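Give me the fold.
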Amino acid sequence: MHLLIRDATLLDGSTGSIGIEGNRIACIGVDASAESDTPPTRVIDGTDLLAMPGLVNAHTHAAMTLFRGYGDDMPLMPWLQERIWPAEAKLTDDDVYWGTRLACAEMIRTGTTLFNDMYWKVPNAVRAIADSGLRATVSGGLISGDFLGDLKGEITELIAKYEGGEFPDRVRLAIAPHAVYTVTPEDLEWCAQLASDHDLPIQIHLSETLHEVEECVATHGVKPTFHLKRHGILDRPTTLAHGVWLERDELELLADHPATVVHNPVSNLKLACGQGREVRGWFDYPTAKAEGVNVALATDGTASNTNLDMFEEMKFASLMAKHASGDPTCMPAAETLDIATRAGADGMGWTDAGRLEVGALADIVLVSMREVTLTPVHDPVSHVVYAANGGTVHTTICDGQVLMEDGRIEGLEEVRARAIEAARRVTTG
């Protein structure tokens, strides 16, 4: 055993120890060290620390930390067209590396150990993730046309690198057509075929705004979900981000396919994505649950959300569901935590992540229960969802390696300095 977390509080309120061998959880129990043939090489005192699975951010754009606060308080499409896309056209390989390193540092600080990323210049993101110690699925976003260069060529090269063993074990690849309004039907089919040929999952934005839905119906004659079905996207394991305007027949369709809808409550609220014919502003979780759809949780990128704190997302998601449904029992804390961990990992194909159990990947977060805002502790799970925040994370472990202990991340100041430099260059002029 190379790492022992001794006498931590577990989610059921009991006290126990967690032993880690390599990158796996070897044992959980009152005296986990006794279950090992060898004494631990490192011990973390878990007194007053709550052990939980590392959080799973099922949809983000990591390098967009460079655009945090850039173009706030704007509608989605003007924000993209006038601020984000022109700035992104200036990004260099190094910019993407340092923007992703900054995102990784923020996720480590706030208890996320696995994330699902969609962006460009992906090899640089892979390098940043490898250097940070986190776990991720990455994908190069495809937008039809050539204003961002030869994206199809980049994706093809990316697959060759992945299949050639140039990715670390902690990083996997997906195919990412950006959205139905930015990708032609022909390119959707190209993505679906590519994913099938190389046995890769898919990530895409879906039904984020009413305008997107209405435009899809007017142009293609069907709602966005059925449009994706028509062009083969849903035949592959697919994560679909946002889903604010999904209707019951679409949720029924998704339930019959290997699909995960990723709820982004804070980003949806900030961009007012639920405003239109009716005021919704929320993903219809009760209906999705009733239809059997796998639902995950995510922050989106920091340009639209402003932070990557999955604790904040859990609280917003649960409270929004309760408010919109008029039912205070809707999306209870234990269910919300499951959505933010296991469901997201499963939807991404990481079926041994997002859980605190023997044999699972050793992705573990320790939350400080010494915080006044978490005192007293009547229900640990309730505290995780409604009272904790990213700042209460004490220790973050991913793949069996301690990435942060007592709030300290090695090399953080260089990451901040280089990211600030990159952000200033691409957002000026």
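The chain has a mean pLDDT of 94.
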